[in-house]
Design goal:
Strand 4 and strand 5 form a beta hairpin. Helix 3 runs antiparallel to helix 4 (202-218). The protein has 317 residues and is α+β, with helices and mostly antiparallel strands. It has helices at residues 79-85, 94-113, 185-197, 202-218; strands at residues 15-17, 20-26, 29-35, 38-39, 45-47, 53-58, 61-72, 122-129, 132-139, 157-162, 173-179, 230-236, 241-246, 253-255, 258-261, 264-266, 270-272, 281-282, 287-288, 292-294, 301-303. It has one domain: Glutamine Phosphoribosylpyrophosphate, subunit 1, domain 1 (4-Layer Sandwich), CATH 3.60.20.
């Protein structure tokens, strides 16, 4: 159980999701883009198709939650799985949902920390609260109001911002980036802020946000903790959502984020557009099993449906 010392016969198999995710909130829409790679603490790429995005309907709003830090626990459950397991999350208010997420994650992170693993971890929750754009950072090392800390605290703290849509500014906005450190953060500001201030459409801004996440992957030649496969969502004030996957070379297997709202929970969503769909349900896993095959050139996992390797661009095996 979480919160207890694991038996010594268990092996420590923790995957890191020190991803890079970027959120932009304006008066009319919220955008989030996140990469899909998981790595081991030593940097080995484990998967290129981890889902790090959940869409949420709250009692007083709607939005998304994503994360960076720990990518998988001892049971190979990701933080997206943790979120899906929280009872009645979709029936709660935004503030109560943040408190529930904090209470659920703290013992899980503590169990991992007892194995001597650095558990620096953050969740970002964003969207619209009673019509106002909002962002919450739930973190054990970071805060919207202050600098990052080198070491993780034993508890998660919640900090946030809420923007009135009646703001006097012509194009009020909030940009929140967490995870891996961009080599040129000023370049990101020069790319995004002028476009936002000019009133760029959601379509235009999404392209810029996704490109920024991909640029962080390319700054280390796509070999570090941030991958070049990206998932993004645009949510407007009315709750309409547009979800896209951005895979180098394209893919015939499209995977979506988890969705939680009211009594509804939808997880492990995929759409096969290959023209030759196959049966993927695994009774042991209780969900579809989507294979990844090692690239013949560099050994990186290449998910089923991908047309090329996300590291070296070799054709999919």
């Amino acid at each position: 159980m979480f919160g207890q010392q694991l038996p010594t016969r268990w092996s420590v198999a923790i995957w890191l999701g020190m991803t890079f995710n970027l959120s932009v909130l304006t008066r009319d829409f919220a955008i989030c883009a996140v990469d899909r790679r998981l790595t081991t603490p030593k940097g080995k790429i484990v998967t290129e198709r981890s889902n790090k995005l959940t869409l949420l309907e709250f009692a007083d709003g709607h939005g998304f939650v994503t994360y960076t830090g720990i990518g998988s626990d001892f049971r190979k459950r990701t933080p997206s799985d943790w979120i899906a397991e929280i009872p009645d999350l979709g029936r709660l208010s935004i503030d109560d949902a943040a408190a529930a997420l904090k209470a659920d994650a703290e013992p899980r992170l503590a169990a991992i920390a007892r194995q001597g693993i650095n558990v620096r971890h953050s969740f970002v929750m964003g969207g619209f609260k009673r019509g106002n754009p909002f962002a919450l950072l739930i973190s054990n090392y970071d805060s919207i109001d202050g600098p990052e800390r080198a070491d993780a605290d034993p508890v998660l703290s919640v900090s946030g911002r809420e923007m009135s849509w009646r703001s006097g500014a012509q194009h009020p906005f909030l940009v929140l980036a967490i995870g891996a450190t961009p080599r040129h953060p000023a370049k990101i500001q020069r790319r995004l802020v002028p476009a936002i201030k000019k009133g760029a459409t959601a379509k235009v801004l999404r392209k810029l946000v996704v490109k920024t996440v991909k640029d962080v992957a390319y700054q280390d030649d796509r070999k570090a903790s941030v991958g070049s496969s990206v998932q993004s969502v645009v949510i407007d004030r009315s709750g309409n959502q547009e979800i896209l996957g951005h895979v180098p070379g394209g893919t015939t297997l499209l995977e979506g984020p988890n969705i939680v709202g009211g009594a509804m929970k939808i997880a492990d969503v995929y759409v096969d557009v290959s023209g030759e769909p196959g049966w993927r349900y695994d009774r042991v896993l209780g969900k579809a099993k989507i294979k990844e095959t090692r690239c013949k050139e560099c050994g990186t996992p290449v998910p089923e449906g991908y047309r090329r390797c996300g590291v070296c661009d070799a054709p999919a095996p």
